[in-house]
Design a protein that fits this description.
The complex is a heterodimer.
Chain A (H helix, E strand, L loop, with lengths): L6 E10 L2 E11 L4 E5 L6 H9 L6 E6 L2 E2 L3 H6 E4 L11 H11 L6 H11 L15 H14 L4 E5 L7 H16 L3 E5 L3 H5 L4 E6 L2 E7 H5 L2 H5 L4
Parallel strand pairs in A: 3-8, 3-9, 6-7, 7-8
Antiparallel strand pairs in A: 1-2, 1-4, 4-5, 9-10
Chain B lengths: L2 H17 L2 H31 L7 H28 L9 H7 L6 H35 L3 H27 L2 H23 L1 H10 L2 H4 L2 H6 L7 H21 L6 H19 L3 H13 L18 H12 L1 H20 L4 H18 L1 H8 L11 H7 L2 H20 L5 H26 L6 H9 L4 H31 L4 H27 L6
Helix pairs in contact in B: 2-5, 3-6, 3-7, 3-8, 5-6, 5-11, 6-11, 12-13, 15-16, 15-19, 16-20, 16-22, 18-23, 19-20, 20-22, 20-23, 21-22, 22-23
The chains are: A alpha/beta, B mainly alpha.
Amino acid sequence: MAKPPVLELRGVRKTYGELVAVDLLDLEVRPGDCVALIGHNGSGKTTTLRLVAGLLEPTGGAVMVAGDNLRLDRSRAALSFVPDSPLLYPDLTVREHLELVGLAHGVGDGLDGRVADLLELLDLATRADFLPGQLSRGMRQKTQLACALVRPFQVLLLDEPVVGLDPPSQQALHRVLVAAKQDGAAILLSTHQLAFAAGLADRAVLLHEGRMVEQGAYGSVVDGVEAGRLGLR
Amino acid sequence: MSQASAATLAFLRRRRRARRSPQQRSDRFTGLYTVGLYTAIGAWISFQTLRQSPARGGSSVWLTGGGLARAATVALLLGLLATLRYATWQGPVVFSAPEVHFLLGAPLPRAELVRVRLARGLLLGAAVGVGLGLGAFVLLEAELGVAAWPLLAAALLGPAALGVLAAALGWLVESSPATARVVLRVSPLVLAVAAAAWLGGAVAAEVDLWSGPWGWAVGPLVAAAGGRDPGWPVQAALLVAVTVAAVLAGWLAAGRITLEELERRAGTHTGLGANLFMADPRGAALLRREAVRGLLVARRLRLHHPRQRWLAVPWRDALSLLRAPGRVGWALVLCGSGALAVAVAPGRKVLAAGAVVAAYLGAAQLVEPLRGEADQPDASRQFPWRWGDLMLLHTVTPILALTMIGLAVAVTAALLGLLPRPALGVALAACLPVAAALVWSAAIAGQRGRLGLDQLMTASAMGEFAGPMYLVRWFATGPLVALVVLLVPVLVLQGAAGRPSPRLHAAISNAASLLITALAVQGAWLRSRHQPD
């Protein structure tokens, strides 16, 4: 029997005055699923992720996480979000960022080991005691990714996660995300990098001007007529 | 100057002049004329008012008996320190970003281009000195009524020479990171020396006048004001000699600065302009901090993380304070000076209000991590707490730090004999709630985030009077909350000071009740806040 969805969007709509950023979006993501949001710039991918992350209030519809309304604290704890540009504290080192997030989410005794593993995995170990101001954009992005991965989560939201990452880091991230899926995490990611999403996403949602144009198995959507018509391939 | 440099600079000047419309030129002239006129009128009115004041002459004994020497020496020393610290991140020679790329990037001798700016900086230093000297002349002449011309000459020439010296030394600091590092490191020591010079009494006054250029610039002024300083000609000669030497050294070092350094300063200059345009003094302060961060060896202080979840944010804030100990230092200076001033003159209500505002500013130094959180509220999504709870967690470490500062100040005041033994107990007990009230006032203001374009546009749309008032309200919110919460209990205590014991105990009890009620309201309000958009 299929597991119940851990993330549900029901008729979600977001408008800014007359501009409709996301229009009546319905989506379900189950544990272990990875869904890729694809589309042009301005198609509503980031807005959708920010709605799910609770950073934007929907104009209409509802976002449910693990059966709860997004406003509840436990639904916040279930979501881990990686924004498209890193949001780091200028006075904390890379390692301290990870310790802070892990500690806040009650990782407990295994925190130091988990931090060390992630630093190693994302090739951040040599920069662990650097401040964000001393890091390149790619390194800051990896720090943000590590922060999202160091804590327990049920749903991982990734907004353009590979922008600024070098190929080895992209491969490392790919491995981490595959492992997270196998552990039962649901992943919702937006990306222009179809090659990165290809080995990871089970399903794809094609957005255009805020509307869902097509949804289905990743390969069929990316190779489909609509994606071709919009020039996404 | 080489022909190529002269031709390039002349071309730039011509193009800039051509771009300036007659209206802009007229506005510039009108602005300068207005400032000059108002300065002259203001100086004349101040002079006449002070001269006819019934209190005139009341300070003459203090001034000529060493007070002028101490006050002016300390003021000039602090002014020189401020100029040199400014030179660690900006300085008298700052180019714009396009100038760095196009002008300094061209194959023109850099020293020649730098000297043009340096000359401008030296003139500016002299002008600032003349301005300060003029103010001092007006005050002293009105108070003392001594022969005007010698006093005017001494008041203008000494500070003007020191202004030139400060600009020249500033350039030497600017062009040498090693010197800049020294300036940053010895600053606390200079502050301590200034405090000692101020507190040293009449004996120190004579030493102060010989202690360095800041004293040499004051010597002729003291003599012209009727004080005792037979060595003033030597002091004046020393000041001139040192100033000439510094200007020469700076002139010769004109080509020493790297393009990288000038580019960094140009970037900071652009950011500074943007922050000031956006009425964001905190942004400007953060920019300064960031600009000098590279000069000092990065601190690698580690504080092992705790085990309890709720301590995550206080731990993070403690790390932040450890990495910026200057914030704790400022908090100590601001809270300490206010509290000690009240302890010296406990009955003065205005002083009490000033002390509350100073202590608020001290507390505001400690809540920087909370302000940083409000700057990028989206980052708070990585925590499992609601915004209001997160804000309260961010106040734990500042409250503890401010309590420690309060305890230290109270004990110091008692040791100096400014606080009687019974009052010490009350002061110690009050440290924690007062610290909480101050920090929560700062948090109430800080959790709103930065003053944004939306607010500036709102202010702009509100008109000439309401607009500025809107901005004043934005900046005054924190201090006003602190005043409302703390001033009433303070006034209750002031009213009962020296009264019989039962009345005093009742006043303490009332003040405590008021404070606790206010704290409950502050805490509840903070907890109810939502993440800013």
